[in-house]
Amino acid sequence: xxxxxxxxxxxxxxxxxxxxxxxxxxxxxxxxxxxxxxxxxxxxxxxxxxxxxxxxxxxxxxxxxxxxxxxxxxxxxxxxxxxxxxxxxxxxxxxxxxxxxxxxxxxxxxxxxxxxxxxx
Length: 120
Prior knowledge:
The protein is mostly helical. Helices cover 53% and strands 0% of the residues. It has a domain at 3-72: DNA breaking-rejoining enzymes fold (Orthogonal Bundle). The protein starts with 8 loop residues before the first helix and ends in a 32-residue tail after the last helix.
């Protein structure tokens, strides 16, 4: 949320209060849990940028987890870990296709291939 997205100072304050309520959920969390969220957010915001992004993508749920992650950060290993994570993150969209909607490519002699048997 940015100041420019609001109609003025009053709207900014209203929107910030609304967003804070949704984030902190005071009706469902204790004071200690809210305090933990605030400290975690501040801790993450003051870390050096490379450590911050490395810790952030690991979604720490507490300050203790964030501290442990920050302490385990090693600049040389960050790049290799990032590459590895990119290589193993794959999303696949599966769609059902009716058999009559598929076309068999012609075989090397130009005649249609026989239909494939479904796996058993």
